[in-house]
Amino acid sequence: MRIALLRTPAGDQFARLDGPRAHPLDAPPWQGGCETGGALPWREEDLLCPVRPTKILCIGRNYAAHARELGHDVPSEPLLFLKPPSALLGPGGEIRLPPESARVEHEAELAVVLGRRAKGVSPTDALAHVFGYSCACDVTARDLQRKDVQFTRSKSFDTFCPVGPWIETDLDPGAAAVRCRVNGATRQDGTTAHMIFDVPTVVSYASRMMTLEPGDVILTGTPEGVGPLVTDDALEVEVSGIGTLKLRVRT
Q1: Exposed (0-12), middle (13-18) or buried (19+): which is 190, by Cβ within 10 Å?
Q2: What separation in angstroms does the CA of 225 have from each of 66, 108, 189?
Q3: Model confidence over 109-148: pLDDT tens digits?
Q4: pLDDT tens, 212-250?
Q5: 130-137/227-229 β-pairing
Q6: Which helix (H) or strand (E) holds 89?
Q7: Which residues in 155-242 belong to E strands, given as ranges?
Q8: Paired strand residues for 218
Q9: How many CB atoms neighbour CB 73 within 10 A?
Q10: Are 167 and 243 in contact, with CB atoms under 8 Å apart?
C-alpha cells in the first residue's frame, strides 16, 4: 500500500494511492485515519512531504564502506543523531545551499516511518511498530560537520531532510537497493543488506534511548559514494520497492 500526502482542492490530505486514483483519508494513517469514500485523480506535482514526525532520528556510518570513505572506524553500536522537523522537504522541492557552507553533500537513505509508539522494544518485535518506508536524503554540510565534530549544525539547515515521494507499507527493509543520481549520473548504488545494524536493531536500540511516537522517522544510514551538490543539480534518490524522490538544488 502506498500512502501519500497530496495537495487537493479540499486542502492537504493523506491518501492511499491506487494507480492514477487517490483515496483520501480523514487523518494520518498512523493516527487511525480511514478512507472518506470516493476517489480523485492525482499528479506528481500534487505530492507533498508524506511525513509529519515529532522527531527525525538518524543513524550515522551504518555502512562500512561509507565509514571508510570518510576516514572513520566502523561503530560498535548504532551512532544516533537528530535532524529537526523544520529540515523536511517534499518531492520536487529545492534543496537550498546555505552561505555558511562551501561543501554540501548528498546521502541517499532508506527512511523508516513509525506506526506505533515504541519504548524499549526488542529487535524481534521492532518491525511490528513500523508503519512503512520511504526514500530520504540526509543532506549534509560536510565542511561544517568536520569543523564542529558533532552533527547538529551540518545536518539541520532548512530543506536538508527531503523525504518521499510516498510511504510504502510492503517492503523488505533488509533487501532494498539504495541509489542516488545527480544529473542522471549514478553516485551511490548500495543495498540495505550491507547495513551494519539492520532496521529491527536500529528501531530497538533507538527505543531504549527515547520513546518513538507514531509518525516519527528514522533515517537508516547511507552507502558509499556521497558527493557534493551544486546549484541547479537534479538529484534523485531511489529505493527499490518504493520509488524515486526527485529534487533540485538551488543557492
Answers
A1: buried
A2: 7, 9, 8
A3: 999 999 999 999 999 999 999 999 999 999 999 999 999 9
A4: 999 999 999 999 999 999 999 999 999 999 999 999 999
A5: unpaired
A6: strand 88-89
A7: 161-168, 177-182, 185-191, 217-219, 227-229, 234-239
A8: 57, 112
A9: 9
A10: no
